[in-house]
Design brief:
The complex is a heterotrimer of chains A (551), B (223) and C (152).
Chain A lengths: L18 H5 L4 H29 L10 H20 L2 H15 L7 H23 L13 H5 L4 H28 L12 H33 L12 H35 L6 H14 L15 H29 L8 H24 L1 H7 L3 H31 L5 H28 L15 H31 L13 H4 L25 H8 L9
Helix pairs in contact in A: 2-3, 2-4, 2-5, 2-16, 3-5, 4-7, 4-14, 5-7, 7-8, 8-9, 8-10, 9-11, 9-12, 9-14, 10-11, 11-12, 12-14, 12-15, 14-15, 15-16
Chain B lengths: L21 H36 L1 H7 L5 H26 L3 H32 L17 H37 L9 H26 L3
Helix pairs in contact in B: 1-2, 1-5, 1-6, 3-4, 3-6, 4-5, 5-6
Chain C lengths: L4 H8 L5 H28 L5 H27 L7 H16 L4 H4 L12 H6 L26
Helix pairs in contact in C: 2-3
Classes of the chains: A mainly alpha (551), B mainly alpha (223), C mainly alpha (152).
Bound molecules: protoporphyrin IX containing FE (HEM) and copper (II) ion.
Amino acid sequence: MTTQVATEEKNYLQEGHTLASWLLTKDHKRIAVLYLISVSFFFLVGSIAAMMVRLELTSPRGVLMSNETYNKAFTAHGAVMIFFFLLVAIPAVFGNFLIPIMIGARDLAFPRLNLLSWYFYMAGGTMFLIAMMSGGVDAGWTFYTPLSSIYSNGQITLALVAAFVSGFSSIFTGVNFIATIHKMRAPGMTWWRLPLYVWSHYAASLIIILGTPVVAITLLLVVFERVAKIGIFSPELGGDPVLFQHMFWFYSHPAVYIMVLPGMAVISEVMACFSRNKVFGYKFVALSSLGIAALGFIVWGHHMFVSSQSMYQGIVFSFTSFLVAVPSAIKVFNWSLTMYKGSVWLASPMIYALGFIGLFTVGGLTGLYLASTGTDVHVTATYFVVAHFHYVMVGGTLLAFLAALHFWWPKMFGVLYPEAIAKWNALLVFIGFNLTFLPQFVVGYLGMPRRYHYYYFAPEFQVYHVMSTLGASALAISLITPAFYLTYSLFKGPKAPPNPWAAKGLEWEACASPPIKHNFHGVPVVVGDVYDYDAEAEERALRGLPPKETH
Amino acid sequence: MAISLNKMNQPQDVVYEQFEDLAQQQETYVIGMWAFLVTEVMFFGVMFMSYVVYRWKYQPYFYALHQELDWRIGGINTFILLLSSFSVALAVHFHQKKKKMQTLACLGFTNLCALAFLVIKMLFEYIPKWNHGHYPGPGFTWDNPNIPGNIAQLWYSLYFGTTGLHGLHVLIGIILFSVLMFMIAVDHPAITDYLPTEMLGLYWHFVDIVWIFLYPLYYLMPK
Amino acid sequence: MSEHASHAHDHSHHITPFFTLVKTLMLLAVLMVVTIAWAQIAPEALKGVPPAMASLINNLIAMGIAFVKAVAVIMIFMGVKYQSHVVKTYAALGFVWFLMMFIMFADYGTRHWESVRGWTPETKQMALPRADEPFEPGMPPRKDIHIPDQHH
Ligand code: HEM
Ligand SMILES: [Cu+2]
């Protein structure tokens, strides 16, 4: 890999300063920036709803809002966070920005489709905001029938259409990634030289194209039922509402992997760079992504153990759910072993990544409790489940998002942020997160149901809820802080060199910070292996020792 | 510049800036389109799966209910779609050979078939059923004592849902084909090779495949 | 740019010959006639066969023919036969993955194996509808229903 960075050349940010140059851009990097702004906005919306939920639960009697308002608040929180943040954030921002660069291409395969996907996302998001503000949605992010199809009023129809439209935005991104990864790799960039980042995104894209249409049409059928009385899930017609759950979870379990696989993608890169080491068992990590994608499709029934699904099917799904934990565990072990004999550098992205590994492990292990039918019957629909999925989604995906943001910020915008604040902030995220969600395991185990706006029947739960709300406040502060120092760095931060972390990979070694419009001068030719860090040599250099003799 | 019907006057074989050469560009488009068709398969998969579940649950009723559909009309429509599929394949064939007239003629024939399909469906199926009150909803009327009305409604829900979505795809096809024909006819510079025709062709064949499964399931099998 | 670029070249310029297309159309038309014809004669042909068996045979024949037709369209009309392995894989992927949904039959097929203590047949009637328990109160059990004679 040759490094050739011409400083005078215009970078992608300088290619145009008008609004139209942004809104009509076909450059994958600019679209990534558009996405970064919009997902941050939706994250803010979702967080406000979350704070409403947390505030309400500080009192056992539910004094702040009525049960209906509460239902709308948690629905808004869940749906916005899942459909408009978690499913989109890492692939559409960092995937978009980095995949072409990492494989040595000038752009994604279909730049116009990429832009269209952003417009679909914005259209879906806007519709959902309108639905929230003009009456609200109270069916939960899962939209179970017959609640969503018959009983619930409010803006369900609009919200469902919004989810449908944003689903297509995902599909476009997935199609684009697949075609790009198959056909646009630079000479020498063989499959076994691909960064694990690209492998994980490939697996996530597969899930997107196989799963998203299923939920899209299922939600559309609920719309049909509400609007045109086409009642495929209607019990009045002899239809089976549980069929909705089958279809919904056929997508939505794999969807949790759409959320977490791109997160795992980030962690692989960050672990390698900040351990100055090859990712341990590269091929296993790469293939485990595909394993997760495939196995993820055969476990959906673990969400339906108590939904009048057959007990026998429950047993099968319990077993397969245990299987799906295996590829996730492979990754966790391999990341941990990557640090072994490496030279660990506790920069802010690394702190987030270490947080990811710990929290994801807790989330995954509690997933196994839930996957055992016997335990699940007791803790299903309690705060135990809430804690489980926040450990994997916040502790996993959100932390990975923050790790990515800090790791690639110098690359994306060509500036350095104040690392000391960032480090302390990463620690605060970790503490705030645990304070919020650890008590929820306990209170859930003791019997606090989810989706209730009060718990006067068990006032002793209050202490856990207050702890959780305090933690959420700390978390909120620690999530606002980066917005400030990162924005500050855009204007006042020192200029970043092309490779501030001395990391490996085309985006660092062959590409300016920020990259030029077509990423590279000419087509890079890849010769070496991926992640060819040499921890020992670097360590020796740091200590002023002579290079090790080679025999 | 005068527009000739016999010669393609567009810029030819343009390679977009993100690609290295034409071959790469073409393969990428084909893979992208197939990835999209995978989503379409799963999309219709849900409709078929719902059908399978309920047919399995209510076998005797569903068998009886299939008599509601006339296999002749469905058969004619099947044949029409086959022809249209064939003519799209021909259109690609001619576009590859850069024969503008023939390409346009084939695309036109395809569009005609698609239109005929929709008209037949409307005139001989949807409208008569609607007039008999056989549509899901409060207005549903049912007087066959052998089949419970709610099951009949469920069946009609599946029927209208599935054929309706398929019909929507046909409609989208008609619109896209019309745009494509116009662009080819006026030598629009965006049409630089046969790929747009091929991509749309892939979509259209897929619409045909859906019908290939839909027809025996809804019209034939229970006889 | 891509490692495949060089040999992909021969694939993408393939022009399917006119007569191949015509032959495929004929094949499709013939298969269509066969499947329709079978549907018409099946009631006669399968007269003595038990209904479950007859339904199985009908399903297999109809879906088998549809499958062959779909393969013909995909391979020739859509040109997958002349494309790379990647395209072939994606062409198959959706159809294979759709079959995953059939896992839910492990649910529908076994729901009623469960015995619920204290449930009499009547409480079962009143319990939430499951897909095989029609909702209309007072409906006769499904096995006793008279199905109009389809065999004329
Ligand atoms: C080790 C693998 C995992 C296993 C075995 C597992 C198992 C489970 C089970 C059994 C439930 C259902 C609990 C109930 O409703 O009673 C559940 C819920 C959930 N899990 Fe996991 N899980 C795993 C990983 C993940 C990951 C990686 C994510 C997301 C990134 C995730 C997100 C969720 C969500 C969102 C729910 C709740 C859905 C809802 O009802 O709203 N899980 N998990
Ligand atoms: Cu799950």
